[in-house]
Amino acid sequence: MDIIEGPVTELSFSSGIMEYRKRKNGLCFIKKYSTDRQRKGDSSMEILRCEGVRKVYGLGGSQVTALDGIDLSIEKGEFVAVVGASGSGKSTLLHILGSVDRPTDGKVIVDGMDLSGLNQTQAAIFRRRKVGLVYQFYNLIPTLTVRKNILMPLALDKKKPSQEYFEKVVASLGIADRLEAMPNQLSGGQQQRVAIARSLIYRPALLLADEPTGNLDQKNTREVLDMLKLSHRNLGQTILIITHDENVALEAERILTLEDGRIIGDERRR
Ligand code: ADP
Ligand code: MG
Questions:
Q1: Which residue's CA is the nearest one to ligand 1's atom 23?
Q2: What is the domain extent for residue 134?
Q3: 34 part of a folded domain
Q4: CA–CA separation, 118 vs 10, rounded Å?
Q5: Is 66 touching ligand 1 by the criterion CB < 6 Å?
Q6: Most buried residue among 9, 26, 125, 241 by CB atoms closer than 10 A?
Q7: Number of domains in the chain
Q8: What is the pLDDT of residues 55-112, one digit of tens each?
């Protein structure tokens, strides 16, 4: 969808769903209303939807199909683990959901926003405000205090945090007493918790974590997992976590299994 040109609002109807599109600050928001009462509850909690998402890397003879037709719906507040062999497409999927990369085909909607039409600037704004990305390496800025690292996404937008929310996040993550420390004064587990706090500061629609415990020992893995679970429980955070670790996956409510770019398993555990 082209989100720069065209009318300011659009309405469309299909299979009992009315779609209303509104363009604001160059971004396109989509709201869906059911015209069929029974379906109302179904669509209102959906925070993420993928339809027929494909990703092909490379050209000509050296093409790799990393994602091959992903259809997925995730509800607000779900804690989902993504598992699968190396090369099965897990990181590619996460990058597409976080608007770090674009699909070759298909549609991705996050919190009512269609990602397909975002230009580079809009994608950067989306990443900062709507998703929290956490990687194996913490990517903290070494010359800034813990407090300043956490507040960086807001500072880039010249925004002030809600003091109450900031305190809730740092308390939930057990780093309230380390705010004036520098990153290199913290353990690996603590640094990862600071990275998680930074990713939560915008109250993102999605927290996307790519093997966040991959670089940690057992004790620190436990700590980081407990903190993710707390943010899920206390802040209602929707989480997608890629992991190789079976014990990490077993903490999630839902396990998606990828193989050769397809979802071959989708198990709800509670
Ligand atoms: P996973 O995270 O499950 O290990 P990836 O999503 O990283 O898998 O990779 C899926 C497939 O896409 C692999 O075959 C990988 O080699 C390929 N791939 C990933 N990123 C690129 C890229 N930037 N260019 C070309 N091929 C890529
Ligand atoms: Mg990967």
A1: 57
A2: 76-104+118-268
A3: yes
A4: 17
A5: yes
A6: 241
A7: 2
A8: 999 988 899 999 999 999 999 999 999 999 999 999 999 999 999 999 999 999 999 9
